[in-house]
Design brief:
11 helices; two-stranded antiparallel sheet; alpha/beta; 16 strands; single chain; eight-stranded mixed β-sheet
């Protein structure tokens, strides 16, 4: 039998992929500095952090040394601590970041758990025209994770949001008498939730976004004027939610991606990934429902995820049920405290 033809990207997505995908090297630093001086745009870098004392200091020192002292590209470097029990805040401050504590930002509104909550609140304690988010668990941090993704925003007024794209190697521990205590590296093994959940959802329901290499990546930059108009899912669904909502608000051509190399970071266990996947799936369902594209009845959606773990003593499988949250914060420009600051 003849092989089935290979499906192609939606023409709109294929065209976008050619025109709105770049490498960090495409915009040399002199070009960025000249554009920053010409436009007067200011840049804030935000690191959401929870128990990241092992990595946050190196990231802060690199950004400060390379992009604030050696090159005057970044104007503000803020670590927002979301309740760390380790020395994350102290390490970040010593390395040169301004540290803000999640619960002290907008104290009249009790904080919800989750990364999206921290990103949303960070808009209240930063001033930059361009806000660049960077996860605090990165290892071997390269300043191109910042300079690369702010580049299109400095040089092209039509661009509103830029995601980083990169390889995500997965380190798998090896044990046993033959292997010893070593780690095997799968060059493209990371991003399991992206490949199993987010990419299928985007390809099926928002095929215009199928060209994004790392739709769930935590490194992205956007104009404040866009971020303040977007709702923020408080949990793991924040990256998918912002991407889909930005598409609806400003259109595909206002979005872009930049290749910054390789991303090394801590990987979560399978059950944590399951909770992440469920939250992302529910975030997608909320948006489909909002657009009247969800055909299932409301009572068919049960916002809970049950997982199983073996009890180390009884060896029985125990069920643990977790809520799949859908709390979202409103666009920041609707918050009175934000209006008084900006």
């Amino acid at each position: 039998m003849p092989a089935e033809p290979t499906p192609e990207l939606l023409p709109q997505a294929a065209s976008w992929l050619r025109r709105r995908s770049w490498s960090a090297a495409d915009r040399p630093v002199d070009t960025l500095l000249a554009a920053k001086e010409r436009t007067g745009r200011t840049i804030s870098v935000v690191l959401p952090a929870l128990d990241e004392e092992a990595t946050v200091g190196d990231i802060v020192r690199t950004v400060r040394r390379e992009l604030m002292e050696r090159l005057p590209l970044v104007d503000e470097l803020v670590v927002v601590d979301s309740g760390s029990t380790d020395a994350t805040a102290a390490v970040a401050a010593e390395a040169g970041a301004r540290v803000e504590h999640r619960d002290a930002i907008l104290p009249r509104l009790p904080a919800a758990p989750g990364k999206g909550e921290v990103l949303w609140r960070s808009l209240l304690v930063t001033r930059g025209d361009i806000v660049c988010f960077v996860d605090a668990d990165l290892r071997a941090f390269d300043p191109a994770f910042v300079s690369g993704i702010v580049g299109p925003l400095l040089t092209d007024e039509s661009i509103q949001l830029v995601k980083a794209m990169y390889d995500r190697p997965l380190e798998v521990a090896l044990s046993g008498s033959a292997a010893g205590d070593r780690a095997a590296v799968l060059p493209a093994g990371g991003g399991r939730v992206t490949e199993l959940v987010a990419r299928p959802l985007l390809n099926l329901h928002w095929p215009e976004l199928a060209g994004f290499v790392q739709p769930l990546g935590g490194e992205y930059a956007a104009r404040r004027s866009l971020l303040e108009r977007l709702p923020f899912p408080t949990g793991y669904g924040v990256e998918l939610g912002l991407l889909v909502d930005a598409l609806e608000l400003v259109g595909l051509d206002a979005l872009a991606q930049v290749d910054v190399g390789v991303r090394h970071h801590r990987h979560q266990d399978g059950q944590a990934l399951g909770r992440m996947a469920a939250t992302i799936y529910r975030t997608a369902l909320e948006r489909l429902d909002r657009a009247h594209r969800l055909k299932a009845s409301a009572d068919l959606v049960r916002p809970e995820l049950t997982q199983f773990a073996r009890d180390p003593e009884t060896r029985a499988f125990l069920a643990h049920t977790h809520p799949v949250t859908a709390l979202e914060r409103p666009p920041m420009h609707t918050i009175p405290e934000y209006a008084t600051r900006h």
